Amino acid sequence: MTSTVALSDEIKTVFDQVYAAWAAGDADAFAAVYTDDVTVAMPGVFNKGRTAVREHMAAGFAGPLKGSRGVDQPLDIRVWGDTAIVVSRAGIVLAGETEVSDDREVRATWVLIRADGQWKVAAYTNTPANR
């Protein structure tokens, strides 16, 4: 049996992969961490499927997200078998900034599944953080 600590480390690795891809501006590597049928819902955005996520991020990396980095601090990780829910404090640090501005801080909810021994993002949503 895998310990909860080990599972948390495995899940945090998903975040490392997402944000390494973001820092590189690599939409393919970013989308590779998501399931084929992922859903992503954010204010003004709904993407269904890995291809839609890749296209959305490619456009962002070529435009308003160029030179930015995403940050994410898991606040709560709950695992039930091959499913995990992670609630995090997150945001985007734009090029030239050193931290997430208050108006871009969000609370995110990630649903991850483990298939073939690998964790993938099956659903993601965020909402502006309460101030």
Automatic annotation (TrEMBL):
Domain of life of the organism encoding this protein = Bacteria
Q: Boundaries of each SnoaL-like domain copy?
A: 11-123
Q: What is this protein called?
A: SnoaL-like domain-containing protein
